[in-house]
């Protein structure tokens, strides 16, 4: 059913933040494989170029090198996107940052950075792209974390707070946009084999074995399945975790 539904997406447009690596890259390529025209947003010029080059083998793709933490310039990003597309069928918020630290040593600067990237940027970008989303009766995907639902370990108070806030944003946006024909999906992820996770394992002095974790392609498969549902159905919340617990 997924392939049948998505094969009609040749003229549809998807925008993915955090497209340079990890889950954002996997979702970018999955959407490209399904025929969506891709707008890929990322901070790393070289890695973003790699994502776009891989997507261009499958569909039309364009990269937008941009740091979404620079909230004051988000309008410039949106203006550049609007020069390239007139509708937006799928908006995926995959960019995120995590800083660990106890209450004793975590800095407010770290908290502010996580807020800007994990909460403020998705909210502001959705707001700025709203006309395109409503025009297409599109879908918005907020990639969240399992800690956005419940806290099960110390030293992540700041990150968890931003993920709880992102859940609130998604739930409120859904309530506002459903009547306008826009679907909103939150995806709560367990530990996934990404560069961020590798960094966390190093900080925790643990052996990083990517094969034991959730794979970015697993996430992409499930998200694409939810996006492929007909207009009569909406997946609002999805939790995915590794089968083998670390």
Which CATH architecture would you pick?
Answer: 3-Layer(aba) Sandwich
Q: Name the structural class.
A: alpha/beta
Question: Helicity range of the residues?
Answer: 40-55%
Could you tell me the strand content as a percent range?
15-25%
Write down the overall geometry. Answer: globular
Compute the separation of the termini in Å: 34 Å
Detailed description of the structure:
The structure is a single chain. The chain has 246 residues and is α/β, with parallel strands linked by helices. The protein has a single domain (2-240), classed as NAD(P)-binding Rossmann-like Domain (Rossmann fold). 44% of the residues lie in helices and 15% in strands. It is built from 9 helices and 7 strands; from the N terminus they run αβαβαβαβααβαβααβ. It has helices at residues 2-6, 22-33, 45-56, 74-82, 108-128, 130-136, 157-177, 195-203, 216-227; strands at residues 13-17, 37-42, 61-65, 90-93, 139-145, 183-189, 237-240. Strands 3-2-1-4-5-6-7 form a 7-stranded parallel β-sheet, sandwiched between helices. α2 links the parallel β1 and β2. The longest helix is centred in the middle third of the chain and has 21 residues, at 108-128. The radius of gyration is 17 Å and the shape is globular. The relative contact order is 0.14.
